Amino acid sequence: MAFGADRPAFGAVALATFAFALFFLLPFAGLVYRAAQNGDVWRLLSGNVVRDALVLSLWTSTLSTLLAITFGTAAAYLLARSSFPGKSLVDAIIDLPIVLPPTVAGVALLTAFGRRGLIGQPIDDWFGFTFGFSTLAVIMAQLLVASPFYVRAAKGGFESIDPQMTRVAYTLGASRTRTFFQVVLPQTWPALLAGIVLCWSRAMGELGATLIFAGNLQGRTQTMPLAIIQAFEGTSLGLDGAIALSLVLLAVALAVLVLFRVFTRHAITMG
Amino acid sequence: MTLEFAAHKQLGPFAYEAEFAAGDEIVVLFGHSGAGKSITLAMIAGLMRPDEGRIVIDGRVVFDSTAGTNLSPQLRNTGYVVQDLALFPHMTVAENIAFGMARAAEPRERVRQLLEMFRLEGFEERRPKTLSGGQQQRVALARALAREAKVLLLDEPFSALDESLRAGLRRELLRLKERLGITIVFVTHDLREAHLLADRVAVFDNGRLLQFGTRDTIFRRPCTRRVAELTGVTNILPATVREGAGEYALVDSAGMALRCAVPPGMTFHTGRAVDLAIRAERVILRRSVPSGPAPSNFVEGRIVSEDAYGSTHVLRFQTDSASHETIEVEIAARPYEVLGVANEKRWTLELPPEDIHMMTADGEAPTPV
User: Fold this and answer.
1) How close, in Å, is residue A162 to chain B by CA atoms?
2) CATH code given to domain B3-225
3) Tell me: the pLDDT tens digits for B137-146?
4) What residues of chain A lie within 8 A of the CB of B46, using their CB?
């Protein structure tokens, strides 16, 4: 049999895969195990801090994802479909937050929109408005850090559409708008959905930029990851609180993943 | 319906230039890839803007650089079919066909007509990917015609298909031409396809339209050496006119004195440099020079190489003339066998005067009388 000679190699690969999978699984198992052992976790879950953080996280991430879709779809389409001077520069700038540590993004936001920032200072002087320590700052941090994931995925989706298809649609009398919604979008939505999931998850997990630019105020800027940090440092709920919060995020992540799988499978069977 | 086309466009170092007009017929745009054929279609469809020019489809000016007219592709009523078809994969066959139809029209009835016309009944609910290559091709044609296209633009639509399928689709296209009565502009780089389909041929090279004319004019009377080369003439000999007046001219070519027919209404001055184009399939093999008065050209030669293509053989002769000119001869498989060409290397070649086409070497038209 052809496989015979490969058997030892195959065993090694299987073993490595199993060890790797175990490495992924164990931390989550630990989390669930600790939560199950400790009755306090369940009490904390229904507390104010967890509820406030979860609600804030959910709506800010959703809003920043919607903003990413609104602006990012247009940008991605433009980047995928047209060429203009400085296109590769724009492309690189949009990619930058993916590569950059989020803390750097936070500092950068502060230098631009902070009270002493490039734009922040004139706005503060003229309108008496500051971005820092507001929920708006949370959304800005999430948008900066998470939207590139959406733009990247959407751009890839748009690039996979044969440009001849839109040209033919134009000759068939379809406007650019109709072509986008009836020809391009129906073929790219699995890619867009993947981008949305990536972007939303990244926004949910956003910590560094938010912490620096928006601060850590319960109910206003304290999202789930920030609440976990605070709990872990022992200034609020303690380690049990951190476990409770982590458990909630884990559940949310699993739900999103399962939903995504169901949707894309549906998309694939639709052909 | 008619199509008038004139356009100029500078594309980097590449200058595009073409002008032609056509009626209810198939115009084949012929040339190598990158010669400017597809650009022509894009300009007619409104997908590419010429720098200067004028395009009129069915009496309606769709582009005119001096008047500043430039209708968008949506308003030009062209049926555009591209090489990879670009069928919408997420729509059914019927939805694909109905995509371009006006909402006010009776789409269902028209779709039914088109399905019938292209023998696609029963496939209306199928997705394009589940159809065969030939069926997909017909869906693309039906979709292009669905909104009463005034001109059908076909960009190498059959080139991705098997030869057997292509033959059927070509015949279908010829039937379609009769039925529709519209201008069809067909891009191809396949010489046989061009010959089969064309009423008129536009020969493109390097962004320029070199010659436009009826099929017979292009294939039998190319205007320049380059057109002759592109349209598959393999024997092109430089020559000098010795005697140009009258129905037949006498020319000197590499030590051979050749008699060739002068196109009606033309005259070539003595001493003028010309190129002679002789299609390989027009050269006749003879065992010897026939006796009696022969107003033809004969030259002795020896086969130096040959290629067998199945239905035909291509023989390359070296002539006995002073410069040992090479002449290519194409001969059908049966005469090849009957004559016993395989066992005999020396032949007399007859170059009939009517089949020697004279072209001015500089590309300028000879003086009309």
Assistant:
1) 7
2) 3.40.50.300
3) 999 999 999 8
4) 170-171
